[in-house]
Amino acid sequence: MTDLKKEFFEKGFVSKIKIFDKSYTDKIYNDYINFLNSKQNRAKLVEHKSKTHLFFPWANKIIHDEKILNQVEKIIGPNFYCWNSLIFHKYPQSKYFVSMHQDQNYWGIIHDKALSVQLAISNSTIENGCLKLIPYSHKKNLVHKDYSSNYNILARGQSISNDDYKKEELKNIELESGECCIFHGNIVHGSHENKSSSHRMLFTMRFLTTDNKVQEKFYYNHATLVRGEDEFNYFEKEEKLSENNLFKLRKLHKNIMISQFSKYGNIKLKFPIITKIVMMFFQFDFFRSFFYKIKKKI
Question: What is the end-to-end Cα distance of the chain in Å, rounded?
């Protein structure tokens, strides 16, 4: 067992791993802020933050980066997918937060065969709402409830109770641009508001071993094989980005997001027939954009 793997499974995370120079992440940061300031419909401004590697070429490049994949392989072995990638962005002086939760509570995947790599595109500090986690909490399974708030970045708002932990247990994961934190899928984590005058941007990648499964009732089953081989074929394989297929990948991205919208609808609305009626309208960007506007999702 490598020292990295031993530390990861003992504490539930490893941090301050340098991946990129600041000049590399600064370019991504500037391009992303320009994207946010361009004229985009609300649906696109919300939905690009999930499955980001199917939307932005820079994100697709990062999920295949050897420096990242080498670290992941040391922990979960040689065969794995990038199942998801997400942008956790907070505007300056914004109220947006991530409620304290455990990912594997709702992923439904195999323990110890999945992890998240959270890469700092901007500096991530206490002031701007850095990642907070509870070391060793990956060894517990806590009850979750939906925490309804327009400012909760999590789509379902899943959260553990404040009674399940003490504030002094929380560890601030401050990162400089280009550094990453790798954390277990069952560790308790979240983040607070951005009280600074600058944007805070983190890019998170979810890696799963090829013998894993997700709860298809709740989540998409598409993934990109980024290292090794797949003998199980549980996932629908996504193509790697090339010069000719960005349009195709963005179309897949949109279809997956619409499908995910429908899955969340079934959770919230309870009655599938209602969801089907709603989704007749929500196939169109205009109606999803209107919904996101009402919910204050940006």
Answer: 42
DSSP 8-state code for residue 137: G
**pLDDT at residue number 136:** 96
Beta bridge partners of 133: 171, 189
Domain 3-294, CATH among 1.10.357.10, 3.40.190.290, 2.40.30.60, 2.60.120.620: 2.60.120.620
* Total residues found in the chain within this entry: 298
Identify the pLDDT of residue 219.
84
Element containing residue 59 per DSSP (H, E): helix 57-63
Q: How far apart are CA 277 and CA 255, in angstroms?
A: 17
Contacts of 264 by beta carbon, 8 Å cutoff, 6+ apart? 155, 156
Structure tokens at 180: 């990453």
Written as one string, the DSSP assignment of 232-254 is S--SEEPPPP-TT-HHHHHHHHH
Residue 23: per-residue pLDDT: 97
On the question of pLDDT at 95 being above 90, the answer is yes
260-283, pLDDT tens digit by residue?
888 877 777 777 888 889 889 999
